[in-house]
Amino acid sequence: MRASFNVLKISTFVYETIFLVVLFFVYTYDRHNHGIEYYDFVFFSFYVIVAFFISKKVMPRYFYSKQYFLFWTLIVSILLAVYAVEEYVLEPIFVGGERADHVSNIFYTLIGIAPIIFMVVSFKIVWQMVRKQQELEQLQLSVKESELRFLKSQINPHFLFNNLNNLYAYAIENSSKTPSIILELSSVLRYMIYDCKADKVVLSKDIEHLQNFVKLNELQIEDRGAISFTTIGSHDNFKIAPLILVTFVENAFKHSLASQSENIVIDIAIHVSDKGQLSFTCANSFLPNSNNDSLDKGIGLDNVKKRLQLLYPNKHKLKLKEAKRQFIVELTLDLI
Q1: Which long-range contacts (CB under 8 A, 24 or more apart) does 4-10 make?
Q2: Domain layout of the chain by residue ranges
Q3: Do 148 and 311 contact (CB within 8 A), yes or no?
């Protein structure tokens, strides 16, 4: 944090120096006389000091607080003071001669002074706006990353809690399928622990994880229903944020099993176009008026909605609908 602050101070100093050097040459340019007098540095430095005073003291105190009358009164007063100092102090000391003896017209003098001061003030304002925008973007990015880490940390324990309960039930019954469940659970957890550290994973890896997850839950259904999983398209050329699709599948199994003891139907389909548009459909059967929890509730589904909004703004469409004792999830995602 300290290093980034120092870098920002250095970059500010460099840009301000470059701007002031260019502005100085513009100020001293004379098509009839290309020479630069030493007093030009004095006058220009005086204007810069006045401009810095306006941008750092007057603007924040009066303009930003919307005290416009006081602000413009001060600006006019400052310009008049600059004129007086230049005519009656600086010119007699540093210039002398005829120019010092002659008092210039206030209107023409201010026309030469005001643009220099206002250009420096404008540069300071614009630079401050750029810095504030950068700080805002960094803050938004930090908040987004923090929220995503929080959402991921909620998803993994949620999944683990559900499946350890299932594993415990099979172990109590001394089921022969316990080793298979442990193997599938191991594959799924390996993906969550190692592969999900990245912001995005290869789509084929995510689909492989989804297939392992389906096999793990399919063991619970046995001959009480039918599960279908189809994929179309190339999956190696695109990446996706992990733990998005699996949340919908997890909810499908959870609520079908909660409401039905037989005739369970879960259909999962993934289609990926050559242009990188993913179409995902997950339909599960359920019986109304059962002990089935609402799909709009629960940590998993709420989290995946938030993650889609954060990671794929304006690049996804999510539809959740009920039709003929089916709950259907339709998600389209632009992976590019």
Answers
A1: 8/131
A2: 2-136, 176-334
A3: yes
- Give me the residue label for tokens 């259904």: 221
pLDDT (tens, 9 = 90+) of the chain, 336 residues, equals 444 545 556 777 788 888 888 888 877 776 445 567 778 888 899 999 999 999 889 988 888 888 999 999 999 999 999 988 888 888 888 776 655 556 667 777 788 788 888 998 888 888 888 888 877 777 667 656 655 665 565 555 666 776 788 788 878 888 887 887 788 788 877 887 777 777 888 999 899 889 988 888 787 777 788 999 999 988 788 999 888 898 899 888 888 887 777 888 999 999 999 889 999 999 999 887 655 554 444 456 777 888 888 889 889 999 998 887 889 999 999 998
The whole-angstrom separation of Cα 106 and Cα 173 is 100
Q: pTM value?
A: 0.56
The CATH superfamily assigned to 176-334 is Histidine kinase-like ATPase, C-terminal domain (3.30.565.10)
Question: Nearest to residue 214, comparing CAs of 144, 269, 291, 164?
Answer: 269
User: What's at 204, amino acid-wise?
Assistant: S
